[in-house]
């Protein structure tokens, strides 16, 4: 079993390295594999070097960070709620973060990623608290939680649309971002948000044993001496930090937080001590893979990755629902 897990992580690492290389090579003018590393290190002011370090490298790093954050956030939410369909997008967290960022840009005139990050966090936290409150008031079941998330997500998405309809300048500024996009990021943008995402990812991986106990349900967690209320709060905080930071960087990308944990479960089971680090590798593979596929299909470097993930993730969601999977446990 240990050798199988090692081989699985090695395969994920190779797949991630391959998709990152493809992301860096692909563009209006492709870079040959033999020249990729040479071009990346050659600070000679050439056009290839400027394009690679100024456009493609930030795009790849955005996909790495956002994909890992969304996948881990989805896995944590599934553990905390006991619902296999839980994810930042389905529970309204992404929509809350997106509305908050659009509000900051349109109404308050804030545009720096280092500042919009805090609005994304605040929006994600507010949406999470509202969904949890609605779910508890409606019975506290996982079904009511999912329904509350759908209602909150739809309402916040409608508010975001209203703001953008009445502010053409804001619409022009965030049009691709609101669909979910890895393009247009700068290294300074990535550097502003990366520390928060990396810290939250590290915390989630360090606490994966406690999250594993949380996923086993109320009775088992109580029998093992876990303070369930405390760890539910910690899980929610981690998911808000991860999804809020990912949305601030890449926009409200959907389905990555749902699909990545389930792909890992199909292969490695539901042990969160393995699932969380594996999801952190699978998420970027999915996100960068969808981004690469979108560019191939559209021949446009600005094709929103959120559209690609929705096209790929919606059938997977339908399959999960028809499969009748019972829970994240």
> How many extended strands?
0
Shape: globular
**Domain unit count:** 1
Structural class comes to mainly alpha
Measure the end-to-end span: 20 Å
Mean pLDDT over the full residue set: 82
How many helical stretches? 14
As a whole number of angstroms, the C-alpha radius of gyration is: 19 Å
Order of helices and strands: HHHHHHHHHHHHHH
Percent helix range: over 70%
In CATH terms, the superfamily is ABC transporter involved in vitamin B12 uptake, BtuC
What do we call the CATH topology? ABC transporter involved in vitamin B12 uptake, BtuC
Residue fraction in strands: under 5%
Using the coordinates above, name the CATH class: Mainly Alpha
Low-confidence stretches: none
Largest sheet: none
| CATH second-level architecture | Orthogonal Bundle
Task: Sum up the structure in keywords.
single chain; 329 residues; mainly alpha; 79% helix; ABC_transptr_permease_BtuC; transport; ABC_BtuC-like; Iron ABC transporter permease
Structure description:
With 329 residues, the chain is mostly helical. It has one domain (2-323): ABC transporter involved in vitamin B12 uptake, BtuC. The protein has 14 helices and no strands. Helix 3 (47-81) packs parallel to helix 8 (187-206), helix 4 runs antiparallel to helix 7 (168-179) and helix 12 (256-268) crosses helix 13. The longest helix has 35 residues, at 47-81. The radius of gyration is 19 Å and the shape is globular. The mean pLDDT is 82.
């Amino acid at each position: 079993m240990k050798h199988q897990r090692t081989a699985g992580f090695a395969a994920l690492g190779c797949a991630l390295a391959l998709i990152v290389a493809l992301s860096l090579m692909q563009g209006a003018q492709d870079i040959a594999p033999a020249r990729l590393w040479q071009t990346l290190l050659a600070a000679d002011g050439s056009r290839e070097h400027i394009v690679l370090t100024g456009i493609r490298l930030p795009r790849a790093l955005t996909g790495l960070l956002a994909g890992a954050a969304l996948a881990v956030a989805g896995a944590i939410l599934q553990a905390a709620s006991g619902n296999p369909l839980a994810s930042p997008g389905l529970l309204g967290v992404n929509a809350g973060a997106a509305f908050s960022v659009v509000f900051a840009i349109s109404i308050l005139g804030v545009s720096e990623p280092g500042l919009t990050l805090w609005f994304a966090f605040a929006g994600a936290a507010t949406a999470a608290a509202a969904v949890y409150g609605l779910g508890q008031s409606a019975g506290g079941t996982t079904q009511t939680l999912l329904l509350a998330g759908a209602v909150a997500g739809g309402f916040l998405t409608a508010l975001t649309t209203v703001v953008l309809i009445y502010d053409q300048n804001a619409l022009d500024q965030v049009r691709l971002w609101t669909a979910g996009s890895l393009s247009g990021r700068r290294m300074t943008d990535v550097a502003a948000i990366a520390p928060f995402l990396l810290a939250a990812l590290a915390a989630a991986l360090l606490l994966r044993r406690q999250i594993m106990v949380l996923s086993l349900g109320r009775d088992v967690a109580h029998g093992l001496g876990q303070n369930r209320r405390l760890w539910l709060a910690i899980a929610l905080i981690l998911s808000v930090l991860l999804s809020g930071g990912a949305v601030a960087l890449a926009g409200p990308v959907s389905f990555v937080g749902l699909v990545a944990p389930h792909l890992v479960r199909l292969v490695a089971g539901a042990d969160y001590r393995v699932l969380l680090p594996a999801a952190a590798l699978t998420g970027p593979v999915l996100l960068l893979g969808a981004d690469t596929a979108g560019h191939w299909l559209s021949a446009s470097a600005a094709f929103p990755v959120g559209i690609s993930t929705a096209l790929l993730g919606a059938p997977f969601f339908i399959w999960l629902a028809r499969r009748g999977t019972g829970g994240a446990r």
